[in-house]
Amino acid sequence: EIVMTQSPATLSVSPGERATLSCRASQSVGSNLAWYQQKPGQAPRLLIYGASTRATGIPARFSGSGSGTEFTLTISSLQSEDFAVYYCQQYNYWPPWTFGQGTKVEIK
Amino acid sequence: VQLVESGGGLVQPGRSLRLSCTASGFNFGASAMTWFRQAPGKGLEWVGFIRPKGYGGTTEHAASVKGRFTISRDDSNSVAYLQMNSLKTEDTAVYYCTRGQAETTTLYWFDPWGQGTLVTVSS
User: By percentage, how much of chain B surpasses pLDDT 70?
Assistant: First the structure.
């Protein structure tokens, strides 16, 4: 089973600032990595797949990068609606599909 | 494109429950369907997966639920099911239904997700 590790657990950022979230896989998953956003009381929403492709309707301020075992989600200028928990997920080796433990982006 | 889960509720340990996921707005029969769950205050855990009939309609289940939970599908009504037997307190979670998406391979990411249905296992 591939173990996904996200850092930091919590990221305190001011509105308008850049946020950089990290995700590491226990072995190479190629570019088969997705990012999801989850707000309190809501379902996860797909942001990024293929490590760097934005899903339909996702604003350009969200960008993904990386391959192999190291991945990054960058939010270029945080908006109020971006404060949420973000999960990375590998889909190169399945089952099981595995997620990181999440990074909470909170208002500084 | 929409997924709507139903069937959650309060159930005693050892009992059964069946969740439903009703799909609309896409070709359900051609889609892989998946259930995930999220225990209170915790992260996301994969539960079960079913391939479209064109890929055999076969299933996969997480080790934590294998032998107790069964995913199935009714393509004529665009519904995916999760039959949960021998429920344990640790199965308490919000259960989400989602569609597997892939490009030219069978490497699936997941979109969209339903709103979730809460299952509470308690005496």
Answer: 100
